[in-house]
Design brief:
2 strands; DNA Binding (I), subunit A; mainly alpha; two-stranded antiparallel ribbon
């Protein structure tokens, strides 16, 4: 493991911790209250929403309010580490097939 790998791992751990802290805020509770997935717009209910980083941590995203959205488990699992432009292309390909 190189120093850069270690630094990257440490930074990702810090960002994940920030996300865990945001999960317990009024801001997050307000975000998930409608029960709607940010990506597919389906009403999946509060218990089926997960916290997703629009720009994934592994791709340089941060755990900030502007980068975190509620997503259904299905969208979150499919999106994985895609950037917004890559995810849009994926969604458009599904609609066109």
């Amino acid at each position: 493991m190189t120093f850069d790998d270690y630094r990257c791992d440490q930074e990702i751990r810090r960002e994940k911790q920030k996300a865990r802290q945001l999960r317990h805020t009024h801001w997050w509770n307000k975000k998930i209250q409608p029960g709607i997935c940010y990506y597919c717009l389906k009403d999946v209910g509060l218990s089926n929403l997960t916290m997703d980083h629009v720009v994934p941590l592994i791709r340089g995203g941060k755990s900030r309010k502007g980068n975190i959205v509620p997503a259904c488990k299905e969208c979150n699992n499919k999106k994985k580490y895609l950037l917004p432009i890559e995810w849009e292309e994926y969604l458009n390909n599904i609609k066109n097939t």
